[in-house]
Amino acid sequence: MFMPLDFLLRLLSNLGIIVLLGGGSYIFYQWYEGGLVSDRWLYLGIGLFLWSFLGFLPILLLHRAGRDEPTPHRSKRVQRLIRPDGSEIQVEFYGPDHAPTLILTHGWGPDSTAWYYAKKQLTDQFRVIVWDLPGLGKSQKPDNRDYSLEKYARDLEVVLALVEDQSAILVGHSMGAMILLTFCRLFPEHLGQRVAGLILVDGTYTNPLKTTTFSPLLLALQKPLLEPLLYLAIALSPLLWLTSWLSYLNGSTLLTTEISGFTGTETRGQLNFSSLIGIKASPGVLARGVLAMFKFDETATLPKISVPTLVVVGKSDIATRPVASKRISAEVPQAELSVLSPGGHMVLMERNQQFLQIVRAFSTSCLKLKR
């Protein structure tokens, strides 16, 4: 769920590293040189260093433990798809081979393991196909550094071909929903034929800066500040990867993940899992994807979508505000809107049972299955 807002929050968390480690080092140095006489300064320096590497523990312990906490489970039924740009796509299969099919496309930053609850709760009735976007998870990044929405939409068409003569429901979360809209523009001939319906979760139809929190400010900063910072993140990718892990250890990544993705009802495992899968990817890859999102606009595509569409959004989503989902549902001819509360950008995890009940009912209706 690495959206532009998340990028800014991660920059702030990196500043936290400077405060904790820099402050602790300075206090130690001054105490050692005699500039700080009281041992209280020594204890403060020790405390800052301990928080730098163990700060995540008290934050996690303040959250309740869930009955079913997500894990990075992967299927043994895997197919690798080699693309002309040098990327390789990891595709995984869950559920009965000949059951009605759902193809799930995750957001930017995480990988397909983010669909933990969907893979577990829907496979009694559906075949669930998930794939890692090239550059993330177990999918190899493209040689030509193409992270455009069009590239991923073309990749999705190749994944869809694995369904063969069946119709499928396409499900996309966050940037995954944006990929689905791009797919609809590039491959309208599949709608109603190979694609029976769409489920767009916490997505947008345009540059995400236009539909996020603090939109006017972020749009004003896009060219003079955000884009240069993203190119700097590409250049300093190894260093930022290290600081991302340090940010997790001091707890700041957990806090930024909670702010941008959840509403406070998430479990300890959901928060920890979402934080960890968000920092495994290369910061350079993530930055290139955000730059690609700045060019995204499928406003004109919405009224041309000819299949039933379910639009789902968390009521308190600040990364992609509900106003974006409301416009999508208003302009797509056969769309229905479902607002989940409480719920943030990670509503598929925080409200997983309610979310998947809606997905099941919609998919059953689209595929004309018996309930």
Structural summary, described in words:
α7 packs antiparallel against α11 and α9 packs across α10. This protein is an alpha/beta fold. It is globular and about 75 Å long. It folds into two domains: about 300 residues, Rossmann fold (3-Layer(aba) Sandwich); about 50 residues, no CATH class. The longest helix has 30 residues. An eight-stranded mixed beta sheet has the order 1-2-4-3-5-6-7-8, with helices on both faces. The mean pLDDT is about 90. The chain has 14 helices and eight strands. It is about 45% helix and about 15% strand.
Strand-helix topology:
Elements: H1 4-33, H2 39-54, H3 56-61, E1 78-82, E2 88-94, E3 101-105, H4 116-121, E4 127-131, H5 149-160, E5 168-173, H6 175-186, E6 195-201, H7 215-235, H8 237-249, H9 252-261, H10 268-277, H11 283-293, E7 309-314, H12 322-331, E8 335-340, H13 347-350, H14 352-366
Parallel strand pairs: 3-4, 3-5, 5-6, 6-7, 7-8
Antiparallel strand pairs: 1-2, 2-4
